[in-house]
Amino acid sequence: MSQNIKVYKGNIVFTKTPKQFTTLENGYIIVENGKVKEVTRNLSKHYKNYEIFDYDDKIIIPGFVDIHLHAPQLPNNGLGLDKELLPWLEAYTYPEEARYGNMEYAKKIYPKLIKDLWKYGVTRSVIMTSIHKETTELLIDLFIKSGLSAYIGKVNMDRNANKEVLEDTKTSIKETEKLIKKYIGKSELVKPILTPTLVPICTPEIMKGIGQLAKKYDLPVQAHLSENRTAVEWVRQLHPEQPDFGSVYNEYGLFGQQPTVMAHCIYTTDNEIKMMQENKIYVAHCPHSNFNLASGIMPLRKYLNLGIDVGLGSDISAGHTLSMMSTIVSAIQASKIKWVEDSNYDPISVSEGFYLATKGGGKFFGKVGSFEEGYDFDAIIIDDDNLYDFNKRTLEGRIEKFIYTGDDRNIVERFVAGKKIEEPNF
pTM score, two decimals? Predict the structure, then answer.
């Protein structure tokens, strides 16, 4: 028998496409070298002598994927949410991020962030940190130790922000390259990503430099796009030579020339949407944040209909929780309000919301977020016994009930790339 094969039994739920759950009661997932080999109802004789990890009546689903969050903002969860984006940044975000020049402070916060992601079953994340290279390195090292997977990027910002978080342009680019050289190729699960966080707080010089690094080292990019009407107008004033927000990023090689996540995307123009399609931009939908800061409602159905890849982001601390279950519900609710406003935008279904939190965001990592053949076995095990109402439910009904009424206490085990991940002990 191969030591590289594992067999898991339970009630299996995943989505191959957004429109429909794939479910299998009392099914088996065969995993070889950390990747899904087969999902089957009947185990072949070939596997009869392997140890079977039997989860009885529990549910096995792909691990959740959060493709937009700000690591330094964990202490601000639930604070300042009566403000809009730009005043909120000045009053809350920048003062908090300034603290991460202090290694001892970062050592208090970053381990808790990773433990909270583990707690909520978030097995993969796309993360922005602060301007500070040393504490960004701390977060990367902690993630590598934890066994969870992430893209992690030191932010770049050299204008139009509180002075405590502004960088010298050349120094920012040099520090970013040092971080890249230290961590590129170091881990299969934790990798650097370039982070020119927002056009109005990045000069053309720094965007050009970061775009060159992305190309030189073949690295992905993350940033914010068209989140707020005031921000869109601000970009127009700063860059009258460009037709829109996305075109500024595009000018500097930061808009799909490398794999790119753009967060929010609420007020995108037709030109931006065309570029997003052509350049295969990933959209991070952050409904909690969009509600909390009164930014607006993203036209999610439009992106899905156009075949643009969309995943979900908690966007802490503009979003107030790392729970992907809560974020799924918020995305569904936002789509319903959008439909009430404009009947051209059909609401999304529960299966579509689930897809966004698993395979939709997982695509940014490759074959992640599903139990199809060849996908990494990222999984969480759900014990929903306390959610029963004593009526027999389908697996679709049970997962819907978990998404709407369950919490982290229903998640009993987590796996990343075939490895069981215990609670991080820092």
Answer: 0.98
